[in-house]
Amino acid sequence: MATIAAYTSPSLGHVLPFAGVLLELQRRGHRIRLRTLSTEVGRMRDLGFDADAIAPSVEAVELDDWRDRTVLDSFRANCATFCERGRREAPDMRALIAHSQPDLLLTDVNTWGAAAVAERSALPWVSLATYTPALRSRGWPPYGPGLLPDQRPLGRVRDALVTRAIFDPAMRSATPMLNAMRAEVAGLPPVDSYDAMVRRAPLTLVTTAPPFEYAHDDWAPRVQLVGPTSWEPPAAAPAWLARDERPLVLVTTSADYQGDTGIVRAALVAMADQPVSVVATMPHAVRIGIPVPRNARVERFVPHSLLLERAIVAITHGGLGVTQKAIAHGVPVVAIPYGRDQMEVAARVEHAGVGVRLQPSRLTPERLRAAVRKARGMRARAAAVGADLAALRGAARAATLIEQQLHGQVSTR
Predict the structure, then answer these.
(1) Same domain for 67 and 155?
(2) Is 233 inside a domain boundary?
(3) How many CA atoms within 13 Å lie on the side-chain side of 172?
(4) What is the predicted pLDDT for the residue at 413?
(5) Residues 117-139 pLDDT 10s
(6) Coil, helix or strand for 312?
(7) Domain range spanning residue 151?
(8) Number of folded domains that form the chain
(9) Are residues 203 and 249 both part of a single domain?
(10) φ/ψ of residue 337, rounded to 5
(11) What is the DSSP code (8-state) at residue 166?
């Protein structure tokens, strides 16, 4: 039995994919020592993990990239946030290591300070990316604006221009910040890019895979796509859900606030006269500014799987977790991306044929109603892609790769 020390970023959208992997490792006999989002500590302890909250100073640094108007500005804001968190994570991660004496470290791809400490420690170390990270990939568009793949000559020219205008400047702006943080917290030498920093981990597991994700044949062996790993807390269906027999439309917003309330407003208006039940989940208690129609509910939290069992379509913010969860249930998606990795997730929704992408700048009730109607015709394709993703057994595959790393083995597949 090995002791595995895990450190997550303060986001529910990251904690639940970690939980899926950690449960599988625990089932195989390993002891889990976890530091995570403070609101989830009790739930993680109920699962049998030795869990504590990450340092309050880390949670105090909030993501405010939703204020930025361009992909480049948003990337810079995220970099500044993760570097500031990283300075606060480092002593927390050292304390976790000292307390648990682990055999292997598991860090979140967004916990740059914890990763720096892991790199310096020389312990076996794995990074878990709960979204596709901004790595270069031969033959695919540059990460960020959500461009659809285009292998024609004009597409390659477009990709080169966007790389030069957006991707490369974003990487250059990040590099000095992350190098300063890495040197300060762990005395590490500089890297030449964000891409190089992510690849410093001996193994990075990404919680998606083809046919939803693009096939990155130049990432292995250090970066492996494992498929969805997310876990959901067991819960009984609310009484109101059992009483409502209408087809259901799920609407989601981000677990980390990003000003995406407009999704809920547009959905409530668009579906108000439709023969459906609308359930919107909004983790942040913000006012939507309009009356809630009789066929709709706005809830802070309901396990999405309970709703997706009845859903005919999911209107999402483009978060990878809920989008893949919808596809796993054979539910097509309307993705309305507001930022972060969501532009890329929405592009993959469109590319995989499992739903429709709608830009926030074009979001109106009329356009959303048309997008829902179009997405509903993609149910068969969503079911097929969902079955392919489920066959990967993401958490089990991730646990196997982690065990290989623990024993000094390196997978080449």
Answers:
(1) yes
(2) no
(3) 7
(4) 39
(5) 999 998 999 999 999 998 989 88
(6) strand
(7) 3-227+392-406
(8) 2
(9) no
(10) -85, 135
(11) I
Q: Are 195 and 269 found together in one domain? A: no
Q: Is residue 278 a contact partner of residue 251, using CB atoms and an 8 Å limit?
A: yes
Whether residues 100 and 83 share a domain: the answer is: yes
Answer yes or no: do 176 and 267 share one domain: no
Element (H, E) at 45: helix 41-46
Sort 81 into a burial class: Cβ within 10 Å, 0-12 / 13-18 / 19+.
Answer: middle
- Which helix (H) or strand (E) segment is 108 a member of? strand 104-108
How far apart CA 100 and CA 76 sit, in angstroms, is 34
Q: Please indicate, yes or no, if residue 232 is contained in any of the structural domains.
A: no
Return the structure tokens found at 86: 């990283």
Is 252 in a helix, a strand, or coil? strand
| Contact of 399 with 21, CB cutoff 8 Å | yes
Domain of residue 102, CATH code: 3.40.50.2000
Q: Is 139 left (phi over 0), alpha (psi -120 to 50) or beta?
A: left
Strands 50-53 and 31-36: parallel
CB atoms within 10 A of CB 149: 13
| Strand-pair category, 3-7 with 296-299 | unpaired
What pLDDT is attached to residue 224?
Answer: 96
| Chain segment 47-104, per-residue pLDDT in tens | 999 999 999 999 999 877 666 566 677 778 888 999 999 999 999 999 999 999 999 9
Same domain? 191 vs 258: no
Closest CA to 238 of 228, 229, 248: 248
CA distance 346 to 325: 14
